């Protein structure tokens, strides 16, 4: 049955264009995929089951008071029909990943990694896998910045010790990797798909993983290149994509000026970055060069949902297409200055993945 469903998913996308040359920059148009249920707000995380093509979406409903929130993890059919939902109440969800027949998610509000069976039913309760706590020291250290005039700035970071777990990825051995946006850390949970009990190790802490930018989140989306032995992580507030050895070590900067670098996905040799503050998804090659750009914002539709991309936060591959979650989350305290304030329904969009030679 899985093979049949997989073939259906592949048939949903249009044929791929001929492979683009190494000197090309591809512009990609998006189109609607599905408008989410009326009571589902702010889709922040996204994943797919590679066998069935089913889609999982997690919400980041952070309204005040907390009693007004209804955070959910929903399971959709390959064509976007609602199959099941898990209600999580006041605690928002961030990272989401499929591994070994289960869907794993970061419960941001509860500071936990949790999971459900891939075929979970409505009302099914998640299982706790690991918990995250305050680190000592709570901040990862100072960052030194060299200026063009030869001087040097020193940024001293503070932290209240809240583990802002955000990005989630698995390697082929079932080890989970988690980013912490506030404490400037990458965690590793060995054998997360089978461990009993599970241990959370600090793989690396570094001031490049925190931010003083307008966006308050540092380390965000994670992607793993096991062949190259590299881990990639976005710094949303700094607008950077970083890389470091998968075994741990000091990160360096791969790409700059990707404002609001949120969700991160490695596919066919390219890093796809959800750039939430420019309403686009960009594809980077191994040198950090932008090779493709998908989407733009086209206003609010009559159903109250974004047309095109608005604060895209996550991507997922389904056959030959990529799905994108429009988080559409207002950030500023001022009223009337953000299109996100006008959104009353939330949605996912899609685009065909072009063939690009990543060399």
- The residue fraction in helices comes out at under 10%
Q: What is the fold named in CATH at topology level? A: Neuraminidase
Q: What's the name of the CATH homologous superfamily? A: TolB, C-terminal domain
Question: Structural class of the secondary structure composition?
Answer: mainly beta
Inertia-based shape: globular
Specify the number of helices. Answer: 1
User: How many domains make up the 3D coordinates?
Assistant: 1
Largest sheet: 5 strands, mixed
Distance between the termini: 36 Å
Strand content is 35-45%
Radius of gyration over all CA atoms, rounded: 19 Å
Arithmetic mean pLDDT? 94
Order of adjacent strands in the largest pleated sheet: 1-24-23-22-21
Low-confidence stretches: 3-17
Number of strands: 29
CATH architecture heading:
6 Propeller
Return the CATH class: Mainly Beta
Secondary-structure element sequence? HEEEEEEEEEEEEEEEEEEEEEEEEEEEEE
Signal peptide: 1-19
Protein name: Gluconolaconase
Organism: Lysobacter arvi
Keywords: Signal
Commentary on this structure:
The protein is mainly beta and 359 residues long. It has a single domain, classed as TolB, C-terminal domain (Neuraminidase). It contains one helix and 29 strands. The strands form eight sheets. The chain has a five-stranded mixed β-sheet, with no helix packed on it. Strand 17 and strand 18 form a beta hairpin. The longest helix is centred in the N-terminal third of the chain and has 11 residues, at 2-12. The model is unreliable at 3-17 (pLDDT under 50).
């Amino acid at each position: 049955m899985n093979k049949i469903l997989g073939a259906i998913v592949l048939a949903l996308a249009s044929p791929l264009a001929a492979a683009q040359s190494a000197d090309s920059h591809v512009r990609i148009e998006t189109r609607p995929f599905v408008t989410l249920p009326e009571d589902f707000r702010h889709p922040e995380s996204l994943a797919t089951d590679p066998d069935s093509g089913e889609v999982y979406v997690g919400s980041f409903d952070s309204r005040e008071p907390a009693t007004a929130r209804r955070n959910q993890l929903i399971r959709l059919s390959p064509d976007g029909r609602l199959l099941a939902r898990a209600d999580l109440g006041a605690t928002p969800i961030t990272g989401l990943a499929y591994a070994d027949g289960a869907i794993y998610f970061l419960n941001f509000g509860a500071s936990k990694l949790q999971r459900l069976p891939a075929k979970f039913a409505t009302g099914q309760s998640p299982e706790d896998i690991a918990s995250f706590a305050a680190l000592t020291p709570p901040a990862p250290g100072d960052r030194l910045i060299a200026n063009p005039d030869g001087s040097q700035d020193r940024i001293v970071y503070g932290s209240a010790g809240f583990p802002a777990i955000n990005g989630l990825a698995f390697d082929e051995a079932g080890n989970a990797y988690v980013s912490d946006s506030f404490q400037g850390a990458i965690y590793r949970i060995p054998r997360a798909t089978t461990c009993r009990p599970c241990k959370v190790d600090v793989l690396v802490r570094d001031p490049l993983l925190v931010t003083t930018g307008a966006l308050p989140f540092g380390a965000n989306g994670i992607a793993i290149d096991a062949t190259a032995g590299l881990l990639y992580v976005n710094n949303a507030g700094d607008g950077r994509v970083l890389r470091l050895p998968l075994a741990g070590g000091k990160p360096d900067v791969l790409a700059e000026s990707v404002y609001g670098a949120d969700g991160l996905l490695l596919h066919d040799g390219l890093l796809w970055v959800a750039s939430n503050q420019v309403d686009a998804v960009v594809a980077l090659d191994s040198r950090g060069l932008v090779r493709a750009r998908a989407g733009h914002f086209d206003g609010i539709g009559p159903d109250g949902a974004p047309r095109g991309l608005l604060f895209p936060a996550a991507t997922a591959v389904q056959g030959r297409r990529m799905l994108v979650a429009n988080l559409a989350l207002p950030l500023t305290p001022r009223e009337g200055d953000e299109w996100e304030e006008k959104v009353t329904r939330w949605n996912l969009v899609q685009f065909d993945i072009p063939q690009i030679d990543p060399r």
